[in-house]
Amino acid sequence: MSMSEPLLLQIVNQHIPAGATVITIDKPIQHPAVYAADLTGDGMPEISTVYQLNSELYLLILKFVQGHWIKMALTKGLGYGVTLLTAAPVTSTARNNLIVGWQIGAIWSKLAVYEWTESGLTDIAPDDLYYSYAEIVDIPGVHGRDGKVEIALWIHDTGEAYRVEIIRWQQNQWVPATDVYRAYFPKVVKYYEQLTKQYPDYVFYWYYLADAQFYAGSYPVALISVQEALRFPEAYPSRENLLELENKIKQAMTATAGTHARVTTWLYPVSVRTTSGTRWGYMDAQGHIRLEPVLEDAQAFQPNGLAVVVKNGRAGVINLQGQYVVQPVYDSINSFSEERAMAIDSQGFKMINEQGTVLTKRTYPFIADMHEGRAMFYNENPNQTNGSSSLYGYLDASGNEVIQAQFASANDFQQGKAVVQIKDQEYALIDRNGNRLATYPYAYVGPLGDGLLAFQKESSGKYGYIDERGNIRIQPKFTSAFAFNDGQAIVNTAEDYKSNYGVINMQGSFVIQPAYNDIRELGENRYALGKAIDAEQPYIGSLYAIAELNGRILTEFFYRNVENYKHGLASASDGNQTYLLDLSGRPAPGYPRVTGAGSMEVVAPDLIKVFVDQRLSYVDRAGRMIWQQNTIVPLHPPYQVREEKYKPNRDYLVYYPQVDGLANQIEQGKLNAKLKELSQVKPIPADQQLDYTYTGDFDITFYQKQLLQLQLTGYNYPAGAAHGMPTMVYAIINLTDGQLYELKDLFKQDSDYVKVLSQIVGDQIKNDPQYSYVFPDTYTGISADQPFFVTADALHLYFNPYDIAPYAAGFPTFTIPFSQIMSIINTEGSFWRAFH
Question: Which Gene3D superfamilies does the entry link to (predicted)?
Fold first, then answer.
């Protein structure tokens, strides 16, 4: 529907009150405040107009319905005029937003960005979004135009000088669109070039010219302009600001000197909760999504510009453009090391290069990462020689077996040498070709470290250290001993389950006395010394202090976790907050604190990756949120799933779902109370030290028509245990009435579904090799309330760990297509009809 301005005015004048007049917009030329654009996404334009009545402004929107124009929305305006009335895709590429500039002063307007929602017209612009001039345009970024507009705001400063800010709507908030500055700021440069020619003695124009040239990427001329501004006796905005700008320009020039500007934007993984489960994609350093979140997993990009991702349950490798360099066909892929990665499929381990080429001639039960051109592997040992069920050897970077599998155990190469076990009571030191350099007749010999190796004379004896020739350098007197590094080694002297860690030098003398529950080597000449939280239960954990290599303690014992130092910073958490430490062991100035327990990592100059309380986010150095995972998942209106957090104790954390939008609020309350109960939201003492940790989470695993399926998972880890116990429960909900379905609800009342399903599962265990791990004679059938979940075409029955299989098997799951059991399904029942 195309309409001319006279026709629009004619329609509008028929629908505004008597005595009202349509406002006139003065610039760029005089024209009435009338605009036609599709605001609802139905393909038909609505008419928007601003009129004045009794000195008040009103925004009216008309919609064409069944051959007539009707009022869709009417809202009161601001100020005394309109400087802008247009429509453009701001929040979505699917429909337009109405953009209005309400004039509140001679050179000031208030920007309003309206979005049409089911509740009416909503202004998503903040109350303080003022400007002097605005440009609405889809500015190309490094990947071109994305179909949504940016808003360039020219904000008056002094004279004819304006501060320019460019913003966009991203992840339900307004963010700076710094990635398009290079495309837009040449226009700003031209504006200030004209002003500096016209007014060469006005310092503020030189300042804004230098600033614009910097953002446009024109660093050499920006340096000339800022130095021109510095020549004025009266600086603007201040001498400190000018010197700061000059320094930024010089740093940018240094970073690009002798190299081409980086063509590819570095990317960072992000997760988004969706109706299909949690999905992963990638953002840039400004928080803009560059690769859409459609992956099931996305690892960080490695220094080679490649990242391991998972799509449709299979692992592959992508580059920074999102292109697959290794197709997603593997079960998993390790990180690259020395341009090689180990890819695992159903057959075993394979070595691949950065182009995805398989280099090994066969698959192996295991291949370690590449170290010094060698990757340790092992084969099964059918003859059980050397007292080992496996035989170890080494591959070269071409995937060839350069050292045949012959050792009972092996270590990675360090400085061209590796420690291997020949047989019981015999170890050796070999070179990269497998030649034996020394032999050690001991029960255990550890990996290399500063020319010394930890060893045991007898398998139950104490640990000491030998040199590479086999000479005993430190007599066995420790209950455990780690490799030397930088002339020091961590050792334990405790004779019982309580630890007593200290640090020795290469003469065996204690540099740090053995008095600690734990000691961690942090790098950059720092240790974390740990004292037991509970001396009688040391396995619960430690509180750490930071110490120098000589044992000088720099802080109190109040960190519950400390990561390794990198470039002078280490992530630490006291259980309540997470922050970065400097080398003094104290919170580093100029970096934020984040509530919760976890870790932080500086991944870009002004971007910090935060993984706290099991959630990933990114902040800048000022602590401003750049990106975080959404906590609300919209379903079809009016339904939504809302994520809530329950953390009554530092060792107890649950993210649980709550469903909104049910017509019956009482039933909604009952449903949400049950979801809390199933998620293990229960009273937990706040200040008491628990003897276990518990984490719970959820995902939306299926959503179709009125059926919503939530997977509720938990992990209870007793302190000191070998592993924790996972739990998994499915809440299968009818959104119409909040009913939670049981297995029996899927079947006809007179059907013996337990018998039928038991027979099918039994046949799968008997005939399908993938279920060979099931304990013999443990399966006796399913129960009437067997744990289950559904997908579009199948029923899935599962068992908990240890029910019928070992712990490592996880939750043994059996898939039964609906087509196989249609005769007993109650196709007229509410369960089936909820998603059919």
Answer: Fervidobacterium nodosum Rt17-B1 like, Heat-shock cognate protein, ATPase, Tetratricopeptide repeat domain
